Automatic annotation (TrEMBL):
<keyword id="KW-0067">ATP-binding</keyword>
<keyword id="KW-0547">Nucleotide-binding</keyword>
<keyword id="KW-0028">Amino-acid biosynthesis</keyword>
<feature type="domain" description="GHMP kinase C-terminal">
    <location>
        <begin position="217"/>
        <end position="291"/>
    </location>
</feature>
<dbReference type="InterPro" id="IPR036554">
    <property type="entry name" value="GHMP_kinase_C_sf"/>
</dbReference>
<keyword id="KW-0418">Kinase</keyword>
<dbReference type="GO" id="GO:0004413">
    <property type="term" value="F:homoserine kinase activity"/>
</dbReference>
<feature type="domain" description="GHMP kinase N-terminal">
    <location>
        <begin position="67"/>
        <end position="156"/>
    </location>
</feature>
<comment type="similarity">
    <text>Belongs to the GHMP kinase family. Homoserine kinase subfamily.</text>
</comment>
<dbReference type="Pfam" id="PF00288">
    <property type="entry name" value="GHMP_kinases_N"/>
</dbReference>
<feature type="binding site">
    <location>
        <begin position="97"/>
        <end position="107"/>
    </location>
    <ligand>
        <name>ATP</name>
    </ligand>
</feature>
<protein>
    <recommendedName>
        <fullName>Homoserine kinase</fullName>
        <ecNumber>2.7.1.39</ecNumber>
    </recommendedName>
</protein>
<dbReference type="InterPro" id="IPR020568">
    <property type="entry name" value="Ribosomal_Su5_D2-typ_SF"/>
</dbReference>
<dbReference type="GO" id="GO:0005524">
    <property type="term" value="F:ATP binding"/>
</dbReference>
<comment type="pathway">
    <text>Amino-acid biosynthesis; L-threonine biosynthesis; L-threonine from L-aspartate: step 4/5.</text>
</comment>
<keyword id="KW-0963">Cytoplasm</keyword>
<dbReference type="InterPro" id="IPR014721">
    <property type="entry name" value="Ribsml_uS5_D2-typ_fold_subgr"/>
</dbReference>
């Protein structure tokens, strides 16, 4: 029995929620924007095959791949439950570019662990699985954070709680909003994007950050789209990170001139996103970004809605 898990791309921060907000993305075209991982069968030695558009960016040695780390981490978790896990044959379909700001590592991690958990009969519940996902994501970024893995696994727009009781809380969303995302083709590592930020922020900035987040969450629950959009401004990361993104200011200016409700950096970048309340506006912005923001053949743009389903698992007997 082969088990395959698809984990969607995600946007961390969503401008006003640094390390606290994240949402899953689904292109309106129906295309898949995320990684797929399959667990094919048990073997004598761990095996991993890489396919997909960005497979050539992955290390050749399977044991240097995050999917192998997922297997090792999963095996250790089950060992604590008294369950022995043999080596397996796996396949990673790498559809998300590394260092894109679209939760590429989170997508691989979530898909791998979801597939492994299903293959072995779901020995880990959602909470334990999500905490393991965050732990493995932390190995790459340097610190445990859930703003990509939580929406990637659970879907929707997630507010990171990170308490002993739960990791995240699902927030209401506006179905009328379109999310145009554009990856330039460049690469920005999460570690580098974090390093460029100051170690401390002023009281004024932290108060503004708290005010925006509180108003945004309140507006979502009230269904107030105007108020929600009005506070979607990044006072923490964007002022520093935009220097890493070529043509960012021009992209923002164009999106705003076309009536976008908000514009920002997806995660650590270089992917950017624009929020619109009409498909026509979203498509106009997508076309401009394709012509003016994409730098090479690796870049792409999509008009998306929020993926409310999250990770999907299927079996092929």
């Amino acid at each position: 029995m082969t088990v395959t898990a698809y984990a969607p791309a995600s946007t961390g921060n969503v401008s006003l929620g640094y390390d606290i907000l994240g949402l899953a993305l689904a292109p309106v075209s129906g295309e898949l924007l995320g990684d797929r991982v399959s667990v094919i069968e048990e073997t004598s030695v761990f095996e991993l095959t890489n396919t997909g558009r960005f497979a050539h960016k992955l290390p050749e040695d399977p044991k240097e791949n995050i999917v192998y780390d997922c297997f090792v981490g999963f095996k250790a978790e089950l060992a604590e439950l008294g369950i022995d896990v043999r080596p397996v044959k796996m396949q990673l379909e790498k559809n998300l570019p590394i260092g894109s700001g679209l939760g590429s590592s989170a997508s691989s991690i979530v898909a791998a662990l979801a597939a492994l958990n299903e293959f072995y009969g779901k020995p880990l519940n959602d909470d334990k699985l999500l905490r393991l996902m965050g732990k493995l994501e932390g190995q790459i970024s340097g610190s445990i954070h859930y703003d990509n893995v939580a929406p990637c696994y659970l879907g929707g727009l997630q507010l990171m709680v990170e308490s002993e009781q739960c990791i995240s809380s699902s927030l209401p969303v506006f179905d009328e909003w379109y999310w145009t995302i554009c990856y330039s083709g460049a690469s920005v590592s999460t570690a580098a994007a974090r390093k460029i930020l100051p170690q401390e922020f002023s009281i004024k900035t932290t108060i503004e950050f708290g005010r925006q987040l509180a108003l945004f969450v309140d507006a979502l629950h009230k269904g107030d789209r105007v108020l929600a959009a009005s506070v979607m401004t990044d006072v923490i990361a964007e002022p520093y990170r935009k220097s890493l993104l070529t043509n960012f200011d021009n992209a923002r200016a164009y999106a705003e001139s076309e009536g976008s409700l908000a514009f920002g950096i997806s995660g650590s970048g270089p992917t950017v996103f624009a929020v619109s309340d009409s498909a026509e506006t979203a498509e106009k912005i997508k076309l401009w970004l394709e012509q003016n923001y994409i730098q090479n053949e690796n870049g792409f743009a999509h008009v998306c809605k929020i993926d409310t389903h999250g990770t999907k698992v299927s079996e092929d007997v």
